[in-house]
Amino acid sequence: MKKITLLLIAGFVAIIAQAGVINQDMAAKLQNTKANVTVKAEGDIVTPPADAELMLYNFQGHDTYVDKDKTFEVFVVIDNNDVYVKGLSEYLTDGWVKGTIADGVATFPAAYMGIFEFWGDAYELNFDGAVFTVNDDASVLTAPDGYTTSVEGEVLDEFINVTLTKAVAEIATPATPTITEFTEDDYGHYVKMTIPAKDIDGNDIFAALLSYQLLIDRNGEQSVYEFTTDNYEFIEENMTVVPYNFTDYYDIDVAGKQVYIYGDIDEWNAIGVKSIYTVGDKSRETRESEIFWYPLKPTAISEVSTNNVVETNYYDMQGRKVDASATGLLIKQMRMQDGTTKAIKVIR
Q: What is the pTM for the complete model shown?
């Protein structure tokens, strides 16, 4: 999903279908919507109080446009009788809406959510209002009639039978991600990754709390790769840690499925990735996975003394862990006594 003109609508829709968040049906809605952005006064966009507690909720709802049930994660802030929800729109996942709770009912008026950029065009997204029933401890919010969002009258999100259920996230060590490919096309170098939303024991963890970080090895000296606004024109600030669900709809796919890389790549010996899992709002606790290293040169990872290897795992080129007896093109990952990992490509 990279650097194609919006005039090629057919190709545009097909490519966007691979993005992971905005799928083919969502892209089809946008292609007929004219981008028309005006400057909004500060304060028009809803944000909760800075000192309020951020709580994780599970979203369940039926998307009437594609006739499909969907689940994802949203964040909720309850401040006295005010309630704020972030993530109700699949088009603007960091957009907030604000409602008021009274007599077990949370009423969210129609409101402006903000601007989202999509392949060089900008769109003003509006929330069209909703009413949720709230249980006694506000752990469950339900809206049978659901809600919609819209751009210039064109409906985008459209959900019914919506339930928001408070989730309890326990700290866990995330499973080690894998790099399955590092290659180039007409537009530059890109890396493909598999980042499991699971812990090291195979249990599901919350994608909304998961991030990843890329690392570079230059002759044994390791550094963190930085996503800069100079190279990534559709991010707002430099990043070294990328949220699992983040995409700029251009260079960076959701879940690191495909990410374009910039820099003096000829000088790199290997590129690595690790997952980061953070639980809690005010009292944050973070755990990191092992680093998975992907060699970029035949001699990138030197021969390793078997005396220093404490664990060896094999992965296929789709990032799936395989048995040691598997054949074909594999990635051999070795965990060393000092806790580091090294990886080499092997053919059997």
A: 0.68
